[in-house]
Specification:
single chain; 263 residues; alpha+beta; Naphthalene 1,2-dioxygenase Alpha Subunit, Chain A, domain 1; 8-stranded antiparallel beta sheet; two-stranded antiparallel ribbon; 10 strands
Length: 263
Amino acid sequence: MCVLAPTQDRIPRAAKVRPFLVIEKWGFVWVWMGEPDHADEQKVFEIPDFHNPRWGMTEGGTLDIQCHYLWLTDNLLDPSHVAWVHQSSFAAPGTDGVPLQQQSLNDGYVVSRWIYDQPLPPYYQPLVQFDGNCDRLQHYEVRAPSICINRSIFTPAGSGGNPDDLPDDAYVMVSYNFMTPIDEDSTCYFWFQRYNTDPDNVEIAKRINNGAIQAFDEDREILEAVHIGMNSMASPNINLGLDAGSLHFRRTLAKAIAAEQKA
């Protein structure tokens, strides 16, 4: 509320703005945009082991992208895009053709796969602490409204396949991605990574973060072109099998939005 009006004692009745409830958690400010009586702090997204001292963490970053936020969630539910968009970082044999496993959640969707006995991607080669080929998990998960979790696991070839039973030298990195719509044509993209090695190594954290920035810039270039193309389509688009995850998530989100608007 307004508490001071220069040159006068009376505060104009119209001098007020709508307040929003906020909470600070995980290094972010979470804003409740709905009715105050419906706010629930327990609905803030949880990050397991956030304060685990044995895990390293990057400082993350912010990137404005000129596209609708759902193009970003589409991208982050598609493990296969790394084979073409991120050839110098995340791509490796198997990312272009190994079948995808899919799982529906109450508030989201998961697309994942294990890729067996293949070379390490360039981005991870200086980070993984074993030699030779790897078994690799790509876990791409999106939770309503637009929180994306990418979990990468690397184990020595022949020891992967079960994320709940990993060898001691397994390398795990989790990228947390938060999409904040600005308007219909632009999105603010926040992120950071956590990984199960080198908790106190500042140089490793910088290397991981700088590599992520480079990769996300590659995403930005593609997605901004997608946004332009989809807003001015000259012919119908064709969905492939690998689009099933993003299409399912869009339907789940649309139902949640409709139910909230009705309530």
